[in-house]
Amino acid sequence: MTTTLGRLEDLPQSYRDELSAQNLVPLWPSLRAVLPPGQPRPNTRATHWAYEGLRPLLLRAGELTPIEKAERRVLVLANPGHGLEKMQASAAIYLGMQLLLPGEWAPSHRHTPNAVRMIVEGEGAYTTVDGEKCEMQRGDLILTPTGLWHEHGHDGSAPVVWLDVLDLPLMYYLEVSYHVDGQRQAVKSGTAEQAYAIGGVLPTPVFERSRKAYPMLRYPWANVRRALEALATSQPDTEAVQVRYVNPETGDDCQNVLGYSALMLRPGQTLRLPVRSPAAVFHLIEGAAEARIGEQAFALAEADTCCAPGYTAVTLRNRSATQPACLFIADETPLHRKLGVLETRG
Ligand code: GTQ
Fold first, then answer.
1. 3-class DSSP state for residue 38?
2. Ligand 1 atom 11: residue of nearest CA
3. What is the domain range of residue 285?
4. Rounded to two decimals, what is the model's pTM?
5. Is residue 318 part of a domain?
6. Whether residue 96 has its Cβ less than 6 Å from ligand 1
C-alpha cells in the first residue's frame, strides 16, 4: 500500500534540531526515496560519448600534460546523472579513454579496483601485467585484476588509445580503493593467451601447480572475432551472436565484479535485449550501429561508447545491411549475481 508519508517540514524545528544534535534522522520522510515502489530510480542516465568529439581533446591532453605529470593520461567518460565530478558511468562502472604517446611509459602500480582495457587505436604499445607483456592491438581485451602490478609502454610511432573499464566507483564507495607504486617489472617469457588459444582443451601440467585466479590476461580480438564468426555461421538460428570473456580454467566470468562480452550484430539485425537489473556499457569495435536505450537513440560510429541504466529496455541495431557490427559490452552482472539482486524482467 502506498500511503502519503509525513514530511520533514511537518515536524517542529526544535524536534528536528534535537534529532540532529544526537546524529538521528527520521526515516519516514526519506523512506520512498531509498525504497521506491516497484523498481529502482537509477541516477545513471543513458549517455553517449562520440569518439569523434573525444579524440581531439585527448590528443590535446597529450600536448598539455606530459605523462610524468599525469601518470595515467585519461579523460573520464562521466555520467551527468551522477554528477561529472563523481567520475562514474554507472553505480559500479568507471570508464576512461587513455592516451599513450610513442616512447612514453606509465609507471608500474597496483590497486584494489579491477581494470580492463579495450584497445581503440594505434600500434606498438603494450601493458605488462603481473610480469606478462601483453601486446595491445585494436579490439584486444587485457585484464588488470585487483592487486596485480601493471605498467604501460609504447615502442610504436603513433598515438595509442584505449578504453579503461574499472569497478572504481564500487571500490571507492566501499572505502577499499587505494594504490601502491612499484618498480619496472621483470618480463616473464610466454603468454597465457597462446596456452589457452584453442577451446575445449586445457593445459595440463603433470605436476599440478596451484591455479592462478586470473590465468589469462589478454584476449586477442583476432581470436574473439573468429569465435563470433564461427558462432554466426554454425548457429544460424541463434538470436544473439555473443561470447563472454571467461576464466578459461573455470568458465566463470573473467573478473569478480564486472562482466565482459563481445556481440556481433548480423547485417541489418535488430536485437532487443531483455530488461535486466545491471547497468551496461556498449562500445562499438567495428561497423555502424544504433543503441536505443529507453526513450533515447544513439547512432554509434566506430570507437563510440554509450551506457544504459539497469531496468531499462535496450535495443541494438546494425545500421549496415551488408557488414556485421561488433560491440564490446561491460556490465554489472557478476556483482548483481553475487549480491542476489540479479533480475530479468522480460
Ligand atoms: O592504467 O592503471 O583509467 O590506475 C584509471 C586508473 C587507468 C591504469 C585509469 C588507473 C589506470
1. coil
2. 72
3. 47-339
4. 0.97
5. yes
6. yes
| DSSP secondary structure code for residue 59 in this structure | H
Is residue 134, in this structure, part of any structural domain at all?
yes
Domain count for the chain, please give it.
Answer: 1
Give distance in angstroms: CA of 72 to centre of ligand 1. 6
Distances, alpha carbon 165 to alpha carbons 77, 142, 205, 207, 279, in Å? 10, 10, 33, 36, 13
3-class state of residue 244 by DSSP: strand
203 inside domain? yes
Give the helix/strand (H/E) hosting 48: strand 47-49
Instruction: Give the Cα separation of 128 and 134 in Å (integer).
Output: 6
Mutate to test the pocket of ligand 1, among 54, 71, 72 (most ligand atoms within 8 A of CB): 72
CATH classification at residue 62: 2.60.120.10
Domain assignment present for residue 299? The answer is yes
Asked if 273 contacts 315 with a C-beta cutoff of 8 angstroms, the reply is: yes
Pocket test of ligand 1: the residue of 49, 67, 74, 110 to mutate, having most ligand atoms within 8 Å of its CB, is: 74
- One digit per residue, pLDDT tens: the chain, 346 residues? 568 999 999 999 999 999 999 999 999 999 999 999 999 999 999 999 999 999 999 999 999 999 999 999 999 999 999 999 999 999 999 999 999 999 999 999 999 999 999 999 999 999 999 999 999 999 999 999 999 999 999 999 999 999 999 999 999 999 999 999 999 999 998 778 888 989 899 988 877 776 789 999 999 999 999 999 999 999 988 889 999 999 999 999 999 999 999 999 999 999 999 999 999 999 999 999 999 999 999 999 999 999 999 999 999 999 999 999 999 999 999 999 999 999 999 8
Cβ pair 103, 137 in contact under 8 A? no
Is the CB of residue 98 below 6 angstroms from any atom belonging to ligand 1? Answer: yes
Q: Give the neighbor-by-neighbor strand order of the sheet with 132-135.
A: 132-135, 125-129, 150-154, 105-111, 179-181
111 CA distance to ligand 1 middle (Å): 9
**What is the reported pLDDT for 2?**
63
Rounded distance between C-alpha atoms, residue 160 and residue 120, angstroms = 8
Lookup result for grid cell 616473464: 188
